[in-house]
Design a protein that fits this description.
Keywords: DNA recombination. It comes from Micromonospora taraxaci. It holds the Pfam family Phage_integrase. GO terms for molecular function: DNA binding. The protein is α+β, with helices and mostly antiparallel strands. The protein has 5 helices and 5 strands. The protein has a domain of 50 residues. Helix 1 packs antiparallel against helix 2 and helix 3 runs antiparallel to helix 4. The longest helix has 10 residues. 9% of the residues are buried.
C-alpha cells in the first residue's frame, strides 16, 4: 500500500469547512494532539438590560384587558415568576390550592414542524415549587 502524503492545511480546511477557526489554525500550524481550547478562558458576562417591574395596579389592569380564560397567566407570571411555556404547560394537578403552591413540572414545547406538546422542563433546576403570592 503506498504511503500518503500529509494533507496541506488548505486541503484540510476544504474537507472540514465547519471546524472552528482556532482548530483550523492548529491544523495549519501542526497536528492537533490536544484540544486547542484553553480551560482558563471565560466568556464575558451577559448583560440582562434594564428590567421594569410593574406595579400591582398595572398587573391587575393587564389581567383585565385579557380574555377571562387568560387572565390567570398574568398573575402566574407576575406573582410566581413563571415563564410563558411553564404557564401554558400547567395542569390542574400542578396547583395546590390548599397550601397556595404552584409546582412547575413541565412546559408547553413548540418545535418547528411539530404540533405543540407538553414536555418536561429543560433542566432539573427549572422543576420547582413556587409559593402563590
Amino acid at each position: 500500500m503506498p504511503l500518503r502524503r500529509p494533507a496541506t492545511s488548505e486541503a484540510r480546511s476544504q474537507r472540514h469547512p465547519n471546524l472552528p477557526h482556532a482548530e483550523l489554525q492548529q491544523l495549519r500550524d501542526r497536528p492537533i494532539s490536544a484540544s486547542p481550547c484553553d480551560k482558563g478562558i471565560r466568556l464575558p458576562p451577559v448583560g440582562r438590560g434594564s428590567r421594569v417591574l410593574p406595579t400591582a395596579q398595572q398587573v391587575h389592569d393587564l389581567a383585565r384587558l385579557l380574555p377571562a380564560r387568560l387572565a390567570a397567566t398574568v398573575y402566574l407570571a407576575a406573582g410566581c415568576g413563571l415563564r410563558l411555556g411553564e404557564i401554558l404547560g400547567m395542569e390542574v394537578d400542578d396547583i395546590d390550592f390548599d397550601v397556595r403552591e404552584v409546582h412547575v413540572r413541565g412546559q408547553l414545547k413548540v418545535l418547528k414542524g411539530r404540533q405543540p406538546f407538553l414536555g418536561p422542563v429543560k433542566t432539573s433546576t427549572s422543576a420547582r415549587t413556587r409559593r402563590a403570592a
